[in-house]
Amino acid sequence: MEVLEKTAPATSHLSANANTCYLLNAVTDDARGVLGRMLQLVYKSNFELKNVSISETDINGLLLIGLKVLVPESLISNLARKIEKIIEVQEVICYPVSDRRQRTIAYYRLAKEALENDAYSFLQKYGATIVDVDKDTILVEKIGCKADIDELYQKLDNMHLLNFCSTGLNAHCF
Question: pLDDT tens digits for 142-154?
Fold first, then answer.
């Protein structure tokens, strides 16, 4: 089990029981019930689950399960150890959500008129990619940390932004 340190200093006004948002990445065997047992540990401890993601890996029979949870900093190692004791779990790595190694994929649907209003320069600046163009709209994809995703959203919000969605967090763990 690996728990990575916070990148931002803790503030003194937070109590010892204040919850911090963590991403727990577990490399597991592809077996029935693993996710259920992991979720039982989260809910049994009354932690708040914010997101679940499951991904196949390049190794046949292995999955990467990501849980985004609110946990007091003093209890995150304990939760990770409990998850790691599940027989099908091979490794657990914890990241504070503020960690910039985490990535999410965001999709922005814009009205075509957005390209006439300097949106294209924002897309280039933020490394976003146009992935689909139809008669009236443009679909833009951005892979990055939450801060970059949010910043691009703020720039595009007043420029014909029609829809927005993003995936759960992923972090480099292999």
Answer: 998 888 888 999 9
